[in-house]
Design goal:
Length: about 90
């Protein structure tokens, strides 16, 4: 079975695009303006927002760790003696 490098490249670029787009939105700056409005939220709503922020932070941290791991593993695979490159015909 042949490797579809173009398919992998599209998936890698699509992931990078989503991450870049997310950073460009500046959600953090938007949220910071909202939370300083007088009477912004009740105690219960504040608890809900805090829980959502904790969950999103955990997801973002896991995404970063997963990407770091993937990059390190991909580098090792590319240099591995256990994965020798095919000899020319």
């Amino acid at each position: 079975m042949a490797h579809d490098i173009q398919h992998l490249e599209r998936k890698i670029r699509a992931l990078g695009d989503v991450i870049a787009k997310t950073a460009e939105h500046k959600h953090d700056e938007q949220l910071l303006t909202y939370i300083h409005r007088p009477g912004w939220t009740t105690l219960i709503e504040n608890e809900l927002v805090n829980a959502q922020l904790d969950a999103l932070h955990n997801h973002a941290t896991a995404l970063d760790a997963g990407l770091e791991s993937l990059v390190k593993i991909a580098d090792k695979i590319g240099r591995s003696e256990l994965n020798p490159q095919p000899l020319p015909p």
